[in-house]
Amino acid sequence: NEGDLWIADDGAFYLTACSQTASASPQAETNSGRVVNLKLAIANAVPRPNIEGADRVEASVSYFRGSKVEGWRANAPLWRSVRVAEFLPGLDLEVRTVGSSWRWDILVARVDDPSSHIAEKTQSEEAPLQLLIEGAQKVANAGGLLEITTELGKVLVPSLETSHSIDVEVSTSSSSLTSALGSGRTTRDEAWEDGVPLSIINDPESLRFSSFLGGATDDYGTAVAVDEAGRIYVAGLTNSPTFPTTTGAFDQNYNGDLDVFVAQLNSTGTVLEYATFVGGENNHYANGIALDGNGRVYVVGSTASTDFPAGYTRSTNFPTTAGAFDTTFNSGSDAFLLRLHADSSVLDYATYAGGSSDDYIYEMAIDVSGQAYVTGSTASSNFPTTAGAANMTFNCGSEDAFTLRLDPTGSAQFSRSLGSADIGAGLSCFDLRS
User: Fold this and answer.
1) Cα separation of 305 and 329, whole Å?
2) Is the full-model pTM beyond 0.70?
3) The Cα angle at residue 429 between residues 425 and 432, in degrees rounded to 5
4) Distance CA 374, CA 364 (A)
5) 217 by DSSP, 3-state: which?
6) Distance of CA 361 to the CA centre of its chain
7) If you write DSSP's letter for every residue of 237-258 in order, what string do you get?
8) pLDDT digits (tens, 9 = 90+) for 267-325
9) What angle do CA 408, 429, 350 make, to 5 degrees?
10) Residue 261 pairs with which residues in a beta bridge?
11) N or C, which end of the chain has less CB nearby within 10 Å?
């Protein structure tokens, strides 16, 4: 089973979804997809063994979770394996990724290793190691795997391996399974690096960094852009009041329902340079993000908020700016467009774009002078077009495409609908002069 494996001082914790084929009973089908939490531990292990990362990869991961900076972790190392050193005298436990799965092995320390304070033969002459599995009702050997029966269904876990002649007894509260494993010996590798493993991934040779960004509930990244210096700009939506905004940002407070967020990370993903909410009451959705040559950030989406500053929104209080193309919520879902100052402290402009029905912006482009070109779809027969536009009227289909160009202040230079008696939508746009 695929899942998450956590290594702690007192054992390993394995979280995985219950298999749907565990049983033919209706209860098994009900339990399918529910998470099983198993604790696997070696009896009589030392209480606080040394846990080391091993086989380090070049990538790193950063965690920006919650609103408190002291809880953030930047540039944490990644490892292909974890070693629990001397969990019993003379024995190490190694957990390693193998493809999309994992394996765990008992390694016997060298006899002449000064850190090993028992002879090699001592452990093998004693009683078998006892692997305790909490959360299991029954354990069986299934072709080299441990088939663990739980109250939710069956889970397959790799068998504990060893290249030395050590017996391992697997125990639960109601059953036990003893198997003699292998012969020979494995020596301690002197090349293991020191450090605390924060994450393990499967050979991410091309991964340069990976970062979490969010608060206590749901967060979604929907658009990303990168500037010439390699800084990363992310737009998305969140319903986390604890989303990690930064000091001096335009909006540091959660507005309710789904808020848009805009964040900037440095080129290595280790520093959250700024993050801000953008929203009003009701839901807001960010569909796209773009940059201009001055570091300003443009975001489009939709809103149902009458006080929203502009994506699509149902918010009647989306924060629009004076002089913008459309400062009033129009009904349904309105499209929006906003521009943030380079340091995220000021909303340069924000505007609605919509009529009496649903309106959505799907794509935008920014030219060298800071003009914004957007396109999307509208079901509004009164979508605001500009005088002299090639097509100023709705074309009677269920949806029309539209194009809109805004100057650097957020005022419309032209707005036109495009369509026929059927469905129309604008999906992409670009500036031929850029």
Assistant:
1) 7
2) no
3) 150
4) 4
5) coil
6) 25
7) EE--TT----TT-S--S--SSS
8) 888 888 988 887 767 777 787 888 888 888 888 777 666 554 434 455 566 556 666 66
9) 35
10) 236, 277
11) C
